[in-house]
Write a structure and sequence with these properties.
The protein contains ten helices and 17 strands. The protein has 481 residues and is α/β, with parallel strands linked by helices. The chain has two domains: 6-30 and 346-470, Galactose-binding domain-like (Jelly Rolls); 36-342, Glycosidases (TIM Barrel, Alpha-Beta Barrel). Helix 9 (295-304) links the parallel strand 9 and strand 10. It binds beta-L-fucopyranose and calcium ion.
Amino acid sequence: MKTIHYLIAAGLFSLSTTSTALAQKAPAPYGAIPTTHQLEWQNMEYYMFIHFGPNTFTDKEWGHGDEDPKVFNPKKLDARQWARTAKAAGMKAIIITAKHHDGFCLFPSKYSTHTVRESNWKDGKGDVLKELSAACKEYGLKFGVYLSPWDRNHPKYGTAEYNEIFAKTLKEVHTQYGPIFEQWFDGAKGEGEKKQDYDFKLFNSVVYEHNPQAIIFSDIGPGARWMGNENGVAGETNWSTLNTDGFGVGADAPKATVLNTGNEDGKYWIPAEVDVSIRPGWFYSASTDDKVKTLEQLVSIYHTSVGRNGNLLLNVPVDRDGLIHPNDSTRLMELRRYLDASFKTNLAKGKKVIASTEAGKKYGAQNLTDGNANTYWTTGGMVKNATITIDLGKPTQLNRIVLQEYISLGQRISSFMVMYWDGKAYKLLDQQTTIGHKRILAFPTITSSKIRIIITEPNADPVLSEIGVYLAPPLPKPTAP
Ligand code: FUL
Ligand code: CA
């Protein structure tokens, strides 16, 4: 009897120590999770795309590959001006069209006769990639390249040999201009064009061999995915996970609607990148100088990209002189100023937070308002509902709420509600689905002293790193372009 009692006591004792120890242990990852490179990439959030090439001089979007390379002559080209502009805009990198569909290479490729070498620019001695990669280094920006597999110039396009040539072209770029943080593969191809089965296995292996840290973007990743449109609008529901088995790029890609939202519990971690142009076209045209997107449009795009768990790749086409046009750079600076003003003061920082459940002090609710994305709150077990209440201390004006999941452990939240205390009762402010790396909720200004988040039926115990509350200023009146 005594022994049994002893054993039970010992058993209970060891059970309770284990459960305390467990409560302080980090939660297990859930489903597909990001690599460290994908995590680093996700934290970049906002960077520049540059479309530049013969199309800039012929006023086309898709060159045929038969244009005279001599048309390419940007007499005042200054890659440092591009990098300076991107840096001042708060962007973290630049990705340039090293080779668009016309096949023209912005560097003197050995494997093409349609390059800067054949152009009039700098008497054929220039190299845009060399100048831009150096400028990016100088300004502390990362450097990325777009290369179109579809090539309307190369005589071997449409034969098996072309895959080898494209792989060698990639090798040139990845060995001469690195480090390269992102390789952008375009899935586009016109109707009735030559057929070519791309060897993406080979292409990806070349990229990884020379830049193992690179994020490979295509319709289906593997590093990051296209999010299904060119308007800057990621899905309101946006999972960073996607099922890609049996799919390919271009015509073989999952439906745009699927790319837009990702797959809940998808097999692979392939987050969305939102590519959109600041002008109606991807390439510069004087005819669009007065059609640069308004500040209001860009703010909205920021909310539907970065604010919906996507990275924003904003295209700023370089003009015929080889410079970013002042209309574009002025707008970029307006956007920077507005975003800085909007997210300068987190009204929830250091404020009291109470959660319905928390997995011990280490993972307590106070981690949600400490301004540190590396500390998080979690429930320490599956819950049907979890409620978090932030006490702002006094009636406070606000119009933005920013939520962040600690995505190193996977994306878990599939549904949440936001309520606010109006002095008498909690009222519903918004009801949404996914959060991911960052979710920005923008709404007309309210006054409230308490904000409540209710997470309902998560796919695994929720893990949130931050909740921010902000009062963005009204948008300034539009200025003439
Ligand atoms: C598309 C291309 O066809 C456009 O010209 C542009 O490069 C855009 C970013 O991707 O698929
Ligand atoms: Ca935190």
